[in-house]
Structure formats: C-alpha cells, structure tokens
Model the fold of this input.
Amino acid sequence: MSKQYRFPENFLWGSATAAYQIEGSPLADGAGPSIWQRFAHTPGRMLNDDNGDVACDHYNRWRDDVGLMKQLGMQGYRFSVSWSRVMPEGRGRVNPKGLDFYERLVDTLLENGIQPTATLFHWDLPAALDDRGGWLNPDIADWFGEYSEVMYKRLDGRIKRWATLNEPWVVTDGGYLHGALAPGHRNRFEAPIASHNLLRAHGKSVQVYRAVGKHEVGLVVNIEPKYPASQSPEDLAATRRAEAYMNRQYLDPVFFGTYPEELREIFGEAWPEWPQADMDLIRQPLDFIGVNYYTRNVARHDEANWPLKVSPVRQTQHTYTETGWEVFPQGLTDTLTWVKERYGNPKVFITENGAAFFDPPKAERGRVRDPLRVSYLRQHLRAVHKAIEAGCDIQGYYVWSLLDNLEWSLGYSKRFGIVHVDFETQTRTPKDSARYYASVVASHGEAL
Ligand SMILES: OC[C@H]1NNC[C@@H](O)[C@@H]1O
Done:
C-alpha cells in the first residue's frame, strides 16, 4: 500500500510567474520602461541577446493562459505587477491602461475559480526611479508605498493575498554586488544600502496595507539551506556566514528587528549602522511568508571568494539541473522546519519551487516528455508533506513556473515551465509534468 499523502483541507495548489519574464509588450499602452527593459537592451548583458520584448506574449494571450490554468485545475496563480506599466515614472501619474490589464486578469482568474496572489515588485523597477538612485535612494520606501497604495485600493478584496517583494536577496546580490542582474552594479558599499532600502520599502508597503487593505500581505524570500562541507572550524564559520547572508539577512529583521551580526563580518566597513527607526519600520507583523526553494548549498571556506569567503562544493552523488542546482528535496523539508523553529511557525506558502531541465524548442506531436521535472516535483511535494507532518503551517504551493519564460540574464535558454512555450509560434503545450501536477492537484496530493 503506497503511503497516503494527505494535505490540509485548505491547502492551495497553484503556479507562479513574473511580469517581465512572461508579459512582453513592455512599453505598450503607456507603460514606462523598467530597469530590465534597459538591461536587456544593453549589449553583452543577456545570453543570446535575449530580451523581454515578446517573452510569452502574455500581455496579449493572458485570457488563453488563464484558460490553460483552468484546464490544469490550478486553484491559485501567483503573478507580479509591472510597476512601470501602472506608474510609468514609478511615482505620481497612474497609467489607466496598465491598471486595466491587471484588473481584467484578476477578474478573469476569479471567474475561473482561481485565487490571484500578486507580487508588487518582482525585480522590474521603473527606470525613472533608477535614474533617481533606485534602491540606493532612501526615498524609495515612500515611492513604493505610493505605488502599493494604488494597487491595494484598486484590487484588494479581489486579490486577497499580496506579496510586497520577491527575493530581496537576489535583487541585492545580483543587481548591486555581483552585477549579473539589473541594474548591474558591482559595489560592496551599495549592496547593504539597496538591501536595507528594499526591506524599508517592504515595511512601508505593509503599513500602507494595514491602513487601506483588509486581507493578507507578506514577503517572498528565497531560502537556500547551507550545509558545511566538513566539520572544520573554517567550514562551519563559512556555512554560518553564507546562511546569515542569504537566509537570515531578510527574515531576522522582519521577525526580530535585527540583522545577523555576521553581516558586519562580511561587509566590514561597508556595513552601516542602521537607525532604530528603520528597524522598527521593517519589523511589521505579516500574515504569511512566501518561501522560494530550489536547491541547497554545501559550503566550504574559500579565502579568495570575495566578500563572503565561501564557495559551494559540488555533490556528485545527486542530479543537477540546467541552472547548475543540486536536486535536494530534503533541503526543502529542512528549510521549512528551520523557518518554523526560528520564527515561530508562521503561515508559509511555497511561492516558488521548480527546475530547469533540457526541453526541446518544439513539442513532438503535441507532447513534451520531461521525466526529470516530474521526478523533481514528486520529490519536492513529498518533502513539503514531510514538513507538514512535522507541524509546519504550510498552506500552499506554487510551482515555478506555469510557462517556459525569460530566465533573466540567461534568456530563454533555461526552461522552468510545466507548460512548454514554442517561442517562434507562441504555442503552449502542457508537458508531462503539467499532467502530473494536474493529477496531484485533482487528488489533493494523494497521487504523489
Ligand atoms: O531562477 C528561477 C526563478 N527563481 N526565483 C525568481 C524567478 O524570477 C526565477 O525565474
């Protein structure tokens, strides 16, 4: 008799996407450019010179895509709002056609029995705000609060769960420290400031929500559990630094109002003294935490690896994805129990989980076989169940991603979708993993 995987009655099964990765038409109907529009059109920044001008053409095909979600039995859909579509300069003027796009999408999701969850910022900062310093300008907390209020007032009630930011760590590490992502800075002094202002903006948005909203607001973080390569003092210290830098740097301020002390060790003179008022702003009570999980990291001390002095150790005994991430489902269970134990068992949604494996550019006779992704999803959904059995308050799972899409500076080379997109014809083809996931949703997990 196979094990019965019972999930909580109200457990929500969904899929996730993000604006710049799927919408296309970045400047249509009065939208302003984002930093990703600029970055993607800067020679040398994007693999194969790919960009989001068309992407999955979701801006035009959104109704069919909702139909696809319905066909797959999705109960929830997590998408992001393009800030500069709604506010072309990022502040002040609202673009009615931009707001209308998201209102139509939300209403159609609801008509199809699909719960919308919106992320207000998923990396595509309005370029006009970047011209004013972007995440380096402390005023951005108020700019984000203004934008948040526009969205909350227009759609709260139809959207009953909001996420302020997606993965502030990636924005900071990729956009300000290592430079692989927009706006492409490489500056040890800028990274802590950008990170801190992201959290301040999050806090401001939550304050605004408490004033005008009536449902739920939370923060989405990527968490990658760290395991020491050895029990040597150096490797244990390296693991602690890596864990503080990626995982505790965001949840500690939100839950405790303090930063991990390792950050001063990591950034040294580049780590400022933060005013208590900032820490009070960041520490707004939340209704949920979104956890994005992909992989783990085995960490060793590496004196040469600036500024963390940590390097990953490849685990040859496990499968790796196309993005070079180890398939390690136990890491998801470990992450969820860590969140439970450290932060008092907050309500958690797994707001992203998935993998890029090689898929052909075209479906073969209406089919896309992706056994590795089916196996990845099965293993990770079982890992979620294990965490629920351990008492974690997990209330939903969104597979990343509904569609093959623009994987940021890696372009269209990495396919995460459970639905295949032929980028020449824009034909959507549910992969075997979509059929599998649909069977899991239909059986409320029992088909795992
Ligand atoms: O790398 C896969 C995903 N990770 N989290 C943020 C998303 O925008 C990425 O596509």
